[in-house]
Amino acid sequence: MKPDDIVTIISIDWNYIITSLLIATPIIASCILCFAKLWSKFKKKFGITTKRDKERELLVKTAESLSSLQQQHTNDMEDFRRTHKESVNQSIRHDQLVRDNIKQVTEEIRDCIAETQKQINQFAENRVHDREQSFRIQKELVDSIQVVAQNGDKREKQIEALMFGSMELLGDKIDQRFSRYISLDGIPENEVEEFEGIYAAYKKLGGNHKREEKYKYVKQHLKVIPVVSKLKQEEL
Predict the structure, then answer these.
(1) pLDDT tens digit string along 174-190?
(2) CB 177 within 8 A of CB 186
(3) CA 209 to chain centre
(4) Phi/psi zone of residue 130: left (φ > 0), alpha (ψ -120 to 50 degrees), beta?
(5) What is the pTM of this model?
């Protein structure tokens, strides 16, 4: 740098220059802003699109897409939580319904067992012949019923034992009736329907062939003995 240049720089009134710049800056900024507005209106009127405008438009669309995706994600999460809650509530209701049904079935089985036991006890009390065998079978049935009531896992086996015991009671009844009817050489008229009912129940429980033959023999070969009342006997 030459000495004359240094003298020139020193002689410049920098305060004046700085003050002028401070005063001119707002004016320049206002002019730039007005120019920008005019340029924007001009582009809009004549459909002029610059690269910067395209980038700005792309940026706005991207922001809107991201906002839409965020909203969709929020909605999806709310739907998922609501659906999950409904599924859990439905599962709880289903489990409760299953428990209620199991409880109802268990109570019905117990009631049925109690009623069967009551009928068996009544039937055993009406037995006249072969009391020892009747008591033995009755005890087996009562034990089986108690096991069924206390242990649900063995219910099917115990019911099968119950049916077998009932079948044996009916079969024993058929044997006794057969022996009695053979000794009478006939079947009393007032016992025909009862004998048929005993055999029908025995047959439904899967009775054996031997007692079926006894039933058929009584029906086919023995006569029906009329029952004469005491009043008619006294008149005779």
Answers:
(1) 999 999 999 999 999 99
(2) no
(3) 45
(4) left
(5) 0.34
